[in-house]
What we know:
- By secondary structure, the protein is of the alpha/beta class.
- It is 37% helix and 21% strand.
- Keywords: Phosphoprotein, Two-component regulatory system.
Amino acid sequence: MDTVAPHVLIVDDTFVDRLVASRVLKSCNIQVTIVEGPKQALDFLDVENDVKLILTDYCMPGMTGYDLLKEVKESPKLKHIPVVIMSSDNIPERMQKCLDAGAKEYIIKPIKAVDVPRILSYI
């Protein structure tokens, strides 16, 4: 019996970081959609219903990953989707703020293959 690969939405404004996250997830047989920012993510989520997890960068222009997290958690349609925040910065206060707002985890970039099973456990 074939199991459907979980669909993960990657949100990152940096091409290299999008590429790394996408390759790591795809190597683990995960269906990936990539968008460049929170606004595009919200537009995509408005029409797409099978996203099982959002993996988002924290630092992006206009709207941060924290802002996206808050929008998702305040939406009756989206609040069930787990959100994992990625960042290059190891800032404990920021990490705690994201976790307090409902993020499942705060990962220091780059994401690695060893992180994937733990991330998928949130689905």
